[in-house]
UniProtKB/TrEMBL annotation:
Similarity annotation: Belongs to the PhzF family.
Protein name: Phenazine biosynthesis-like domain-containing protein
CC terms in the record's Gene Ontology section: cytoplasm
InterPro entries: Phenazine_PhzF-like
Pfam families in alphabetical order: PhzC-PhzF
Keyword Secreted annotated: no
Superkingdom of origin organism: Eukaryota
Keyword Isomerase: yes
Naturally occurring in which organism (per UniProt): Raphidocelis subcapitata
Length: 351
């Protein structure tokens, strides 16, 4: 069966998300849980540590067992269903939201397993997330006509995520300027920006992301040259990951029709730098929508691997605003995850 090395293995894939070709974008491992109760959280965490990717996505079917019409095919529900469970683990912890691993999971279902659903819905710690197919031309239009490198003419996937608007007022007490000291906001800004400073500072409580906007006119090359020391960055935040889980450093423009560029550092989650971060764009989209006066934007996360992202801030008369994040994905590894006897049980986790 696709993605499995033997009948006893769990299907495992390695996907480059927000990429048009291998070895770009952000890699994520995707594990398909073939039945309920097979994995406990301890085992999921151990698998994520073994994969050693920034995130590993675990996809589950809503009910136990194989589809009655699947003819014994353990992947039948993944091929035919439209709703799935989804959880994300870094090598050290579970996280409430991960954009690139969501895109990777949808890519596996759509492209590797041939799921023909118009949209796939994932039930997650951040609520229900929806992923739809989208053609590159539509994404370019959504980006205000910009066409940053990264689509390569491939069909894209559009993720429907919650909007996570940041603000200066939302800064927790330990990060407010009046806190002072090396553990306060100034230390974080100094380490994260390499002394460039920040024109604007904002914070998104749901994900504990700190957004630092570089001074106007800062060239993209200066953002790309940043190399914050992970240990110094982690030590600069008071309370460790209790207050900050990640720092977004961003700049307006960036050339080639881009509205903004960014990088994302998260040593508190065991991620020195995330190559391309979907959840960060749930923070960036409302921030730049207000700043630039537009809702459709083209962006690029300029880590060493890099990745193109198109975002749209959608508001409705009823309901909370949403952020649509679009990007491509490429499969680099197909295989099977061999579990030792007892894995998923309390005994297996303790062995």
């Amino acid at each position: 069966m696709a993605g499995s090395g033997s009948s006893g293995d769990l299907p495992l894939f390695l996907i480059d998300a927000f990429a048009a070709a291998p070895f770009a974008g952000n890699p994520a491992a995707v594990v398909l849980e073939l039945r309920d109760g097979l994995l406990d959280d301890s085992t999921r965490q151990r698998i994520a540590a073994e994969m050693n990717q920034s995130e590993t996505a675990f996809v589950s079917v809503p009910t136990a067992g194989v589809d009655e019409n699947g003819g014994g095919d353990p992947l039948a529900r993944f091929r035919a269903g439209g709703a799935f469970g989804l959880r994300w683990f870094t090598p050290t912890t579970e996280v409430p939201l991960c954009g690139h691993a969501t895109l990777a999971a949808a890519h596996v279902l759509f492209s590797e397993l041939g799921n023909a659903s118009e949209a796939i819905h994932f039930d997650t710690l951040s609520g229900r997330l929806t992923v739809r197919r989208q053609q590159p031309a539509a994404a370019a239009a959504a980006g205000g006509g910009g066409s940053p490198a990264g689509a390569g003419g491939r069909a894209l996937l559009r993720l429907d995520f919650p909007s996570l608007p940041p603000s200066l007022a939302a800064l927790p007490p330990g990060l407010r300027p009046e806190a002072g000291g090396d553990g306060g906001l100034e230390a974080l800004i100094r380490v994260a920006t390499g002394g460039l400073g920040a024109e604007a500072v904002a914070y998104s409580p749901p994900v504990k992301y700190l957004l630092l906007l570089l001074p106007k006119g800062t060239p993209r090359a200066a953002l790309e040259a940043l190399a914050p020391d992970p240990s110094a960055l982690a030590a600069a935040a008071p309370g460790g990951g209790a207050l900050v889980s990640g720092v977004i450093v961003a700049a307006e423009g960036g050339g080639a029709g881009l509205d903004f560029v960014s990088r994302f550092f998260a040593p508190w989650m065991g991620i020195n730098e995330d190559p391309v971060t979907g959840s960060a764009h749930c923070v960036l989209a409302p921030f730049f929508a207000e700043r630039l006066g537009k809702t459709d934007m083209a962006a690029f996360q300029c880590s060493p691997r890099g990745g193109a992202v198109w975002v749209r801030l959608e508001t409705a008369a009823a309901g909370a605003p949403r952020v649509c994040v679009s990007g491509g994905a490429v499969t680099t590894v197909r295989g099977g995850l061999a579990l030792p006897a007892g894995s998923g049980s309390a005994a297996g986790a303790a062995s």
